[in-house]
Amino acid sequence: MSYLVLARKWRPQNFDEVVGQQAVVRTLRNALTRNRVAHAMLFSGVRGVGKTTLARLMAKALNCRQGELDVPCDQCESCLEIMAGNAIDLHEIDGASNRGIQEIRELKENIRFFPAKGRYKIIIIDEVHMLTTEAFNALLKTLEEPPSHVYFMFATTELHKIPITILSRCQRYELKRVPFAELVAFFARIAEAEKVAISPRALEMIGREAEGSVRDGLSLLDQIFSFGGEEISDGDVAQVLGLVDRGIYEKLARALLAADLAGCLDIFEQSQAGGMDLKRFANDLLGFFRALLIAKVKAQPEEMLDLSDQELAAIKDIAAGASQETLYHYFSLLLKGSEEMQYSSRPRLALEMAFVRATQAGQIVPAATLLGRLDGLLAGAGPLPQGVARPGFSGIATAEPEPPAPKSLPRPTVSAHSSETFPEQKKNEIAGASAPAPEHDRQLPPASTVPSSGREVKRDWEAFIEYVKERKRWMAPVLQLCAMARDEGSELVLKFDDPSDCKLLQEHDNLKLLQSFALDFFQHDFRVVFRVRGTQAIADGSGDEAESLLADRRVLANDPMVRMTAEIFGGQVGSIRTGSK
Questions:
Q1: In Å, how far are 41, 374, 471, 504, 570 from 367, measured between CA atoms?
Q2: 189 pLDDT tier (thresholds 50, 70, 90)
Q3: With contact defined as beta carbons under 8 Å apart, do 397 and 579 qualify?
Q4: How high is the pLDDT of residue 380?
Q5: Whether residue 55 is found in the same domain as residue 196
Q6: Cα 197 from chain centroid?
Q7: What DSSP character marks residue 333?
Q8: Which of 131, 284, 313, 527 is placed for a possible disulfide with 135 were both Cys, Cβ 3.0 to 4.6 Å?
Q9: Radius of gyration of the chain measured on its C-alpha atoms
Q10: Which domain holds residue 267?
Q11: Is position 368 within any domain?
């Protein structure tokens, strides 16, 4: 007898033997036991996941005369004929070879007759998407109202090529790729049954190469068994399949993240000497860094990664020592090198240069972290020069005297604190020395009554940048990138040539701080608006935070204690600062 390949020898003969399609199997078995089997079923999925196998199992279950409704007996005449491939009432048609309207007409003529032996005629059309449009149209009426003794079962790897009119008349079952762990466990059972000693790591290499296809994995396993005999090593699998040991990628990733260029090139040379395929090596390395990034951002990375426990532990360990930004940057550099390699006459050099760029990139630190460190350094640098204050809401309004009349004595400058911070004793003293206290329920004047400092945006822009530099050093160089600053009444418009130049300033905390600086320096109630050349406004301070700052200024300008103090000493409100002392 001729040798029977593993893919045929281990084809499931009942629903319990199907690998990795539990949801579909459960639905089909329930349909059988409850007599709810659709007359037209469509199985879709990638190659080798069990589409035709499930169609044959349904055919066996429908025509079996001895077993349970959902468990074919494999002993009756119908089951034995289907297993042997010579059942009269089971018609398996190759859609690629019988794709014309004439074949479909002959099929329709044939199904008019009752089954010869079984209870039903079963029509299985494999790769049904290969049928012509005319052939599909010829099937429409039959699929909608088929004879009661006929069941149609279609299988396809390209569901999108089937007309929607056909899909609407079928009950669809979408088969998934078989999970990595189930594939490896299945291959281990086969190796044990075939009396072949093979390591778990070798089985994992085969399972990974199968990419979720049982048939592909069985074909590879058959090839490995033929090569190694009764004992198979990891090296045998790598040699036959032209693979690289997964440990190579772990070593290379650690060397890249450690900026060890010499180590990277040594590891790459070892892989090259082993005869690995360069394109496959680059794709697998990208896949490894993708796994690192997933392990960094997900609490349960095994939900997205089909990896062994040993490799998953190594990936988690590497990812823990690098930031998310670093892993993404390395992935981008390697992806760019891999794409350059595809079109280069010297692909190896292109990939090696990607290693050079990656090792020179270093660890990436988020901008927010850098700004936080800068603020920490500035905070620990000791007292700032006189007149320079650190950012922070103080709630202080400074009252300056009115300009003295000619030949009059100068009047002193006073500071009037808000009612929240002004000492209670001073309040009483001022209240006792003044005229009757002003009415507290008097309506506050509009913000426009707050006098301006006399500074203009266009004239004093450089001075404003210096003002900002003393309080937030990193912000000044960013403001210097501004192409034009203009006062448009209630708005301070900052125009930039490139949207990336003002991206950092648009962040919530930074925008709030810039708004505060602008109000304090120019003493004008406007909102900060960003515009990029050729576009409309992209960000502004007109939200709740900006309104809050403007409201703070109005409250301070109209605080009863401030107004009473200015009235007693004949002064006026000269400037209001809400963001810095």
A1: 55, 11, 18, 9, 49
A2: very high
A3: no
A4: 61
A5: no
A6: 41
A7: H
A8: 131
A9: 39
A10: 246-361
A11: no
Handedness of CA 185, 187, 189, 195 (dihedral sign): negative
Answer for the pair 503, 539: CB distance below 8 angstroms, yes or no.
no
The single-letter DSSP state of residue 12 is -
Tell me the percentage of the chain whose pLDDT exceeds 70.
Answer: 76
Condensed to tens digits (0 to 9), the pLDDT of residues 245-257 reads 777 888 899 999 8
- pLDDT of res. 168: 92
The CA distance from 80 to 118, in Å, is 12
Domain boundary (115, 139, 174) is at 174
- Cα separation of 285 and 265, whole Å? 14
- Position 513: which residue type? L
Three-state DSSP at 89 gives coil
Question: 537-540 and 527-532: which strand pairing?
Answer: antiparallel
pLDDT tier, 430 (very low <50, low <70, confident <90, very high otherwise): very low
Mean pLDDT along residues 337-351: 88
From residue 577, alpha-carbon distances to 407, 444, 526 in Å are 32, 19, 14
Side-chain-side CA neighbours of 506 within 13 Å: the count stands at: 16
Tally of domains within the chain? 4
Which H or E run includes 542?
Answer: none
Least confident of 40-54, 241-255, 509-523, 525-539: 525-539
Residue 299 shares a structural domain with residue 397: no
Q: Single out the residue of 289, 275, 268 nearest to residue 350, CA to CA.
A: 268
Q: What is the pLDDT of residue 392?
A: 40
Task: Give the helix ranges, DSSP H, for 116-245.
Answer: 133-144, 164-167, 180-193, 200-210, 214-228, 234-241
User: What is the CB-side half-sphere exposure of residue 133 using CA atoms within 13 A?
Assistant: 0
Answer for the pair 187, 7: CB distance below 8 angstroms, yes or no: no
Per-residue pLDDT band for 490 (boundaries 50, 70, 90) equals confident
* Number of residues written out for the chain: 581
* Euclidean distance between CA atoms 25 and 5, whole angstroms: 25
Average pLDDT over residues 446-455: 52
Does some domain include residue 305? Answer: yes
- The span from the CA of 252 to the CA of 363, in Å, is 16
Exposure letters 339-366 (e unless 16+ CB within 10 A, then b): eebeeeeebeebbbbbbeebbebeeeee
Q: Which tokens hold the place of 423?
A: 């000492």
270: which 2 tokens? 């070892």
